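Exam review. A common question shows you a sequence with its structure tokens and asks you to describe the fold in words. Practice with the pair below. Do the first one on your own.
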Amino acid sequence: MKDQFALNQGQEILRKNIRRLCEEMIGPRTAEIEQTGVFPENLKQIIRKNGLIGFPFPKAYGGSGGDEVSFCVIVEEVARVNGDAMMWVSQNHLGAQPIVLAGSEEQKKKFLPSIVSGETMCSFGLTEPEGGSDVAGMRTRAELRGDHYVINGGKRFISFGNMAGYVTVFAKTNPSAGRKGISCFVVEKGTPGFSAPRVEDKMALHSSPTAELVFDNCIVPRENLLGKEGDGWDIAMRTLDVTRPTVAAIGLGIAQGAFDAALNYAKQRVQFGQPIANFQAIQVMLSDMATEIEAARLLTYRAAAYVDEDDRRMVKFGSMAKYYATDVAMKVTTDAVQIHGGYGYTKDFPVERFMREAKFSQIVEGTNQIQRLVVARELLREF
């Protein structure tokens, strides 16, 4: 791949089409979604009808076979207008990635078609109450008994966990083996012993529920094991390597949306007889915001291109992009609130929502502190 990166003509056309869809169909519903905490059924249908959920999945299972760079374009544009819609678009890409990467052909044919169509949500069951960043320290156990596994334990902060048709759950089948003792299973909704008793009361993204999962002697068929026993750690890490540029695109879209709002406000807000955009202090803020967004965009799409090429550098660049783009989102949204002054702290303007969504992007799929450690590990490995 060339050192410089730019979207091709097809990807630019895709961006224009998705932006039009978002501005005409999704953006105008944002205030309603914020007020009700419910994602409208007709918007779900629009997302499905336009193939946004199935875009990155293989054609063999009903997807578009789209590349990761183009999917990042989609995610960025959706996040630019509505974070909740972004969650509905991107969730299955994360949740079902273990099936794509490690599932047998029989498993893929069984689980993927309804996930790809958006008919079924698929959650990613990795994080635990006492084991977020410390994946190897998970306490959930899976014991093989004849033709089935019995899972006991719990997961926390699982997006759509209370409504997902499937959850890719990570549990230890050999507790004494550390991370080499982790395995991955597909747990189906309605399985005896599986429940989602609690939904988190979050500061943002209220129409995309985040649930606690409980496994109490949960019986899972042996054929729902993905790969072999002990493959779970590799499946989880490979999944996150693929999806981290998508999280970077989320931060990128949030930052762009906040910047657009701040620029528009600065051109209209009059103080001391002129628009505040005429003042150098505001101009410097806008310049820094725009520059950092463009830098994050280049890094994000370069990382996604490495995923498309199955290049080992996806690990380092994915983590770089994730922490840089989402840190930029936090800074840009904070500055956007500041440019709005007192109005930025009210819900009459969108920037306070962008600021709350930006904090989510810094934490999800590995905190930004962990991402820096991943980058450092890769640098030391390379040199």
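Now try the second one, then compare your answer with the model answer below.
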Amino acid sequence: MALMPKRVKFRKEFRRVRDRKATKGNYVAFGDYGLQALEGCWLPGKVVETGRIASMHLLKREGKLFIRVFPDKPISKKPLETRMGTGKADVDYWACRIKPGTILFELAGVTEMTARAAFSRVAMKMPVRCRMVTRRVAV
């Protein structure tokens, strides 16, 4: 089942588009390796779930997967061949706002080769270009 919020204050949102780089959520915080988006998009909740399933099939209960994004933006869509007017359409799906540099998934407790294999499978499912990054060691 796709991710979505339990409750929201407003049912429908404006379609704002921000073309800035990510300043929050752009570093590996929980795991050892992360999958970083190199482009911005609205990532549907179904795609996040697809990426989770693809990585867990390869990992087979080895390591821990952290999902760093959550779909909290309602995207509405009118049906085809509908006349203009009559208000805004119903919510079609929920999406995550992804800015360039956002970490999508993180892995902990696995080797680098396993993480690379898992993230390559996940990156195939994503609608944006992604790369694997490692945790920065602070001195």
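Model answer, second protein: The chain has a mean pLDDT of 92. Helices lie at 45-59, 112-125. Full marks require stating both points clearly.
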